Amino acid sequence: MGDRSARLVIAELRKMDFGDNYIIVSYSDGKGYYRTADIAEIEAFAAEMRSRALQIFAPLKKANRIIKEYGSQTLGL
């Protein structure tokens, strides 16, 4: 399996909750993944994901403002 395929599978597995206390995290050097139940590692992983999510969703604030203000009108740029 290639790197890209492995990353896609891991991304899908990370979305699933099997009812256990393990989560898939990556090594800080980016050279692999592993399962952990260590709460400190899980907290660090959650903080990293939260930070990434905020960076991804930040541009939506402006987009949502424009949509709210102008709706389906053409902006006439």
What is the CA-atom radius of gyration, in angstroms?
18 Å
Which stretches of 5+ consecutive residues score pLDDT under 50? none
Termini distance? 47 Å
- What structural class should be given to the helix and strand makeup? mainly alpha
Could you tell me the number of beta strands? 2
Largest sheet: 2 strands, antiparallel
Residues in helix, %: 55-70%
- The portion of residues forming beta strands comes to 5-15%
Mass-distribution shape: elongated
Helix count equals: 2
Q: Which H/E pattern describes the elements? A: HEEH
- The chain-level mean pLDDT equals 88
List the helices and strands and how they pair.
Layout: H1 3-15, E1 23-26, E2 33-36, H2 39-70
Antiparallel strand pairs: 1-2
Walk me through the structure.
Helices cover 58% and strands 10% of the residues. The termini are far apart. The protein is elongated and about 50 Å long. A two-stranded antiparallel sheet has the order 1-2. The longest helix is centred in the C-terminal third of the chain and has 32 residues. By secondary structure, it is mainly α. The mean pLDDT is 88.
